[in-house]
Design a protein that fits this description.
Catalytic activity: N-terminal N-formyl-L-methionyl-[peptide] + H2O = N-terminal L-methionyl-[peptide] + formate
CATH architecture: Alpha-Beta Complex
Strand order of the largest sheet: 2-3-4-5-6
Family: Belongs to the polypeptide deformylase family.
Structural class: alpha+beta
CATH class: Alpha Beta
Order of helices and strands: EHEEHEEEHHE
Shape: globular
Largest sheet: 5 strands, antiparallel
Helix content: 25-40%
CATH superfamily: Peptide deformylase
InterPro entries: Peptide_deformylase (IPR023635)
Distance between the termini: 27 Å
Mean pLDDT: 95
EC number: 3.5.1.88
Low-confidence stretches: none
Oligomer: single chain
Cofactor: Fe(2+)
Length: 196
């Protein structure tokens, strides 16, 4: 099932997600639906708050980066197979130099901005089988995980922008929350006027 993506302005995107256990209702189906929703939206990551669920669950699939000519052969090979489910994730550490990358978000369509993040992370999480994992990740894969992790902490990539950038984006963000944006995937807008 393909869920509508929750748009900027919905309070669920600002909630710190609750931990879940392996008895969470229909978890396998939810994870499958999240991947289906992410692919239908041409995304590389999706967090449960983006489909209206304030829980600590997100997924990533970095395989679209395997064709990026700017990356090394080794990086492309790693990203090709970097598909993960993160349940109850906890960031252990973020280290290394900060580097800039142009980020976007399915919940904030038509907005892309340069965001600085640390290069290397260590994260603890449960996989889809509730096996505990600790993984150290760097580069683009780390950035994708950091972006999705922020979602379960109630943080959006626009929060990381300068005050000037935020002011420049204010009306665009307001329009997104009202549904005044063109997207080629299903979305749910918090302030859109209902048609009668």
């Amino acid at each position: 099932m393909i869920y509508p993506i929750i748009a900027y302005g919905d309070p669920v995107l600002r909630v710190i997600g609750k931990e879940i256990d392996k008895d969470y209702p229909k978890l396998d189906a939810l994870i499958e639906d999240m991947f289906e929703t992410m692919y239908a939206s041409s995304g590389i990551g999706l967090a449960a708050p983006q489909i209206g669920l304030p829980i600590r669950l997100f997924i990533v699939d970095a395989s679209p980066f395997e064709d990026d000519e700017d990356l090394t052969e080794e990086e492309r090979a790693f990203l090709k197979d970097f598909k993960r489910v993160f349940i109850n994730a906890k960031m252990v550490e973020e280290i290394g130099d900060e580097w800039v990358f142009n980020e976007g978000c399915l919940s904030i369509p038509d907005v892309r901005e340069d965001v600085f993040r640390k290069d290397t992370i260590t994260i603890e999480y449960m996989d889809e089988n509730f096996k505990k994992k600790t993984e150290t990740i760097n580069g683009i894969a780390a950035r994708i995980v950091q972006h999705e992790y922020d979602h379960i902490e109630g943080i959006l990539f626009t929060d990381k922008l300068s005050a000037l950038k935020k002011r420049l984006l204010k009306s665009k963000l307001a329009n997104i929350s009202k549904g005044k944006v063109k997207v080629d995937y299903r979305m749910k807008f918090p302030l859109a006027k209902k048609k009668r």
